[in-house]
Amino acid sequence: MNALPGRAVVSLEAIANNVSRLKAMAGGAGLMAVVKANGYGHGMVPVARAAMAGGATYLGAAQVYEALDLAVALGPDRVPIMAWLYGEAAPIAAALEEGIELGVSSVEALTRVVTAAHITGRTATVHLKLDSGLGRSGAPASLWENLVQCALAAEAEGAIRALGMWSHFAYADAPNHPTVVAQEEAFTQGLALARRLGARFELNHLANSAALVTGRPVAYDMVRPGIAIYGLSPIPEQASSAALGLVPAMTLESELVLVKPLPKGHGVSYGHIYHTACDTVTGLVPLGYADGIFRSASGRAQVQVAGRLVPQVGRVCMDQFVVDLGPGARESAGEPVVVFGPGLNGEPTAQDWADAAGTISYEIVTRIPQHVPRVYSGQAGL
Ligand SMILES: *Cc1c(COP(=O)(O)O)cnc(C)c1O
Q1: What is the pTM (predicted TM-score) of this model?
Q2: What is the mean pLDDT of the chain?
Q3: Which of 9, 104, 114, 214 gives a 20 to 30 Å CA spacing to 317?
Q4: For 346-369, how does the pLDDT look when each residue is reduced to its tens digit (9 = 90+)?
Q5: Among the listed residues 252, 257, 232, 229, the one whose alpha carbon sits nearest the alpha carbon of residue 332
């Protein structure tokens, strides 16, 4: 057993239910469950299995090495896996041997994939990526026609199958932002051009969680939600998880390792940014920024102890933080602490911590390091 007095309990049932709810929102489109970054910190392989149980038709990893780990762990009984980031050292040939599909943003990347196809004797299934406006990966509009033509030439000689095109939004969390419509139009035009050139695209995809839950009519053949399958809202200013019918899957639990009285006016933790307002009782939680607790949330967050919300006070340290349990508190060491959870029993959520830390919920869950054990709950078989 891991000796760290903290653990992330992940409900696989919540993930499966979130996936089936999101799939219903996508109409008849397929659903790629995005499980990059170790399943957004929840554990890539268990999340992938739960997502498949919930009806995911694809799994998406970012890095090729993640996709390889996933393919090996899941074995043959799986939906297709797609990966889209690979540096010079990435094992492309091994990925093709495992049947992993690849995103391709440039002729250079296509050339590498074609070379790996020749080495392995496999036909690589690729998804051509258009930069419809995000300005990150993908071929810019000026290079799109050339990329499609090169891909069609490689397809004609049997090295690849260009299964579809895809792109990614810059502003999907602000559905009325003018870039959203502009990107949709760029995607439609890029698709029309590819078809005129002879592309037989069957699987085109654009929508992330935010585009899906805000109801943009951009499902095409598949949607690619990440954060929403973990039950976190991609648009927290507009709709909570509960309003979207999603249940956050992760609960970060710990315990008090020390409870003690402190007199009024006593400074707490490094820099004494907090002083006790009265004679009080403090508790020590053995999780710090090395365990994924954001230092930038110092003094702004709450945790749940014995069913009540108590403030986190003073600076968050490397391995620990302090809570003010209040005057006369009767908890003792060993008392369970919920740092965040689904929020269904009054506990704070990952979104609350994101607000306190000045970041997004994505960063709260993905920053919990590997040494914090993941414990799975949910239906047997998931
Ligand atoms: C991470 C990612 C997604 C999922 O995004 P969410 O905002 O988590 O839904 C979809 N597509 C691509 C290309 C991504 O990198």
Answers
A1: 0.97
A2: 96
A3: 9
A4: 999 999 999 999 999 999 999 999
A5: 257
How far apart are the two ends of the chain, measured CA to CA in Å? 22
Tokens of residue 20, six digits: 């089936």
**Protein residues whose CB sits closer than 6 Å to any atom of ligand 1:** 34, 36, 62, 168, 208-210, 224-228, 234
φ/ψ (deg, to 5) at 351 = -65, -40
Contact 315, 301 (CB under 8 A): no
Write the pLDDT tens digit of every residue in 233-246.
999 999 999 999 99
Cα 73 versus chain centre, distance: 19
Domains of the chain: 11-230 (3.20.20.10), 250-377 (2.40.37.10)
Distance 226 CA to ligand 1 centre (A): 5
Closest CA to 112 of 93, 139, 85: 93
CA 60 – ligand 1 centroid, Å: 9
Residues 93-148 pLDDT 10s: 999 999 999 999 999 999 999 999 999 999 999 999 999 999 999 999 999 999 99
Q: What is the DSSP string of 47-69?
A: HHHHHHHTT-SEEE-SBHHHHHH
Which pLDDT belongs to residue 216? Answer: 86
Q: Is the pLDDT of residue 380 over 60?
A: no
Ligand 1 probe mutation, 32, 130, 208, most atoms within 8 A of CB = 208
Single-letter residue type at 256: L
Paired tokens of 47: 């999340």
